[in-house]
Specification:
Length: 491
């Protein structure tokens, strides 16, 4: 029976949907009028006031943060876990980058508006950046979706806001400077959501952030030194592609292109699987690539068939991702100077899943790809997924994309407060586009309203959570001193 609320349909978007209903995030929900959606947001505000999001007090039964990290380590490559700890221990800021599970556990105890959207799940400021669109434009947006799933939109906003406080502390900004950065970000999220709430559906879907347009705005807002650094960073992003990776990561061995060994960060299959025939391993990888290609559109499948497998290596990536299995796959096209570098990255359960429920997709690789397509204005043309039984006999999920395609990240370590405020607005705008595409933008805008009540509440929350993050970082420092964890630094 269809009620006025929701009907779970086991995640199958192809099942018949009753007239007047639509499919959203694993449920069948009513098609609401604009007025009804506005009322929905106001009702949520009445039930969960915007001011209730202020502050953070850890629960009495809060899990040990180190234990949560150890829990994640169980399924990871054992010899790489110490590298993860080493990267997290560089600073409280790098710790935060790897602490998505810890914060998800904390957010589960905070107020929820009850409005669901597709969320990034790890929306800190370093998970935004530049990337190439299929039309070869440089765009800005979210660029990491390992933890994506349907969830409370405000969780993404809170994780992003706290990351700016933690980064601001790392840069030595005063409390007043950090507050200005946060209010710039939160004000932009609120006003941008209001703009998107008034747009037609297709206009929302086609919206994107052009990096060149953003650079033009930046030039009018910051000093000459900041402009010069930003322009150089954008220029560098345009060089980060398969050809650049080809020159940096490969060399010719006995007339054949091979990925350079740089253990433990890059380990070719010849080093990892000594005692196994190379051809046997490559045959296995070819089968995996052929299986993955089925998740691509027909034109992409045709394109990838023009490339041949040349070599494979395991590569350590990121901070929070270290220890998950990530492979780089070298493929060659028309000749030995026409490379395509793919990255196959292990997809485990989202850190949010324990707190928001199981995602309907059959594999976590599919979950990541589905979330990226929903949230990102332009996705990698080779983005796909596969479920693989490895040479060790264990079944795992992966998603696949290009290793580098004009990817660029912000230089947070060089930002002054005005530049960080500009970057915060840019991140907020990108997050709004993602949330507006996949959730009820009209209800969210109605919940936020026109005042800065929510903004001020999250300033208070973010400073309090930054304090908690520092305590958790200190707990990891103590865990190393006590010999509880093994740490490998400088890698």
């Amino acid at each position: 029976m269809v009620t006025a609320n929701t009907l779970v349909v086991d995640g199958d978007e192809h099942q018949p949907v009753p007239v007047g209903m639509r499919y959203e995030h694993g449920k069948v929900v009513p098609h609401l009028t604009v007025a009804e959606r506005v009322a929905r947001g106001k009702a949520a505000r009445a039930e969960v006031p915007r001011s209730s999001h202020a502050g953070f007090v850890p629960g009495a039964n809060r899990p040990d943060p180190v234990a949560l990290l150890e829990q994640q380590a169980v399924s990871r490559v054992p010899e790489l876990v110490p590298i993860r700890y080493g990267r997290m221990l560089v600073s409280a800021f790098t710790f935060y980058r790897g602490a998505a599970l810890i914060m998800a556990s904390d957010l589960a105890g905070t107020p929820r508006s009850g409005i669901t959207t597709q969320v990034c799940g790890d929306a800190h400021l370093m998970n935004f950046g530049a990337f190439a669109s299929p039309e070869r434009r440089l765009e800005f947006g979210i660029n990491d979706f390992d933890e994506t799933c349907p969830g409370p939109w405000e969780w993404d906003v809170k994780r992003l806001a706290a990351s700016f406080v933690i980064a601001g502390r790392d840069r030595g900004f005063s409390t007043k400077e950090r507050s200005r950065v946060l209010l710039a970000m939160l004000g932009e999220y609120r006003s941008s959501m209001q703009r998107f709430a008034a747009l037609p559906n297709l206009d929302v879907w086609y919206a994107h952030i052009d990096v060149e347009a953003a650079m033009n705005e930046l030039r009018s807002r910051v000093g000459a030194a900041a402009r010069k650094r930003a322009e150089a960073n954008v220029a560098k992003a345009r060089t980060r592609d398969s050809l650049q990776a080809f020159d940096k990561l490969t060399r010719v061995v006995d007339g054949q292109r091979r990925i350079i060994s740089d253990p433990p960060l890059i380990e070719p299959i010849d080093d990892l699987y000594q005692g196994m025939e190379r051809d046997q391993i490559l045959d296995f990888v070819r089968a995996v690539v052929r299986s993955y290609r089925r998740t691509l559109s027909s034109d992409r499948r045709h394109l990838i068939e023009d490339f041949q497998l040349a070599d494979v290596a395991r590569k350590v990536v990121g901070v929070g991702s270290v220890g998950t299995r990530a492979w780089i796959v070298l493929m060659l096209g028309r000749d030995g100077t026409d490379p395509l570098f793919l990255q196959a990255k292990e997809a485990e359960a989202s850190v949010l899943e324990e707190f928001v429920g199981r995602v309907d997709q059959r594999s976590h690789g599919e979950r990541v790809v589905h979330g990226q397509h929903l949230m990102q204005a332009s996705s990698d043309i080779f983005l796909g997924w596969d479920h693989v039984q490895g040479v060790d006999g264990v079944e795992r999920d992966f998603y696949v994309r290009q290793l580098r395609d004009w990817k660029g990240a912000a230089l947070v370590e060089t930002m002054d407060a005005p530049t960080m405020a500009f970057y915060a607005r840019l991140c907020a705008d990108a997050l709004v586009r993602a949330h507006a595409r996949s959730g009820d933008r009209i209800a969210i805008a109605s919940y936020l309203g026109s005042s800065d009540v929510f903004d001020q509440a999250l300033v208070e929350f973010s400073e309090a959570y930054a304090d908690q993050n520092e305590r958790d970082y200190d707990a990891l420092v103590r865990a190393e001193k006590d010999g509880r964890i093994t740490v490998q630094r400088g890698i």
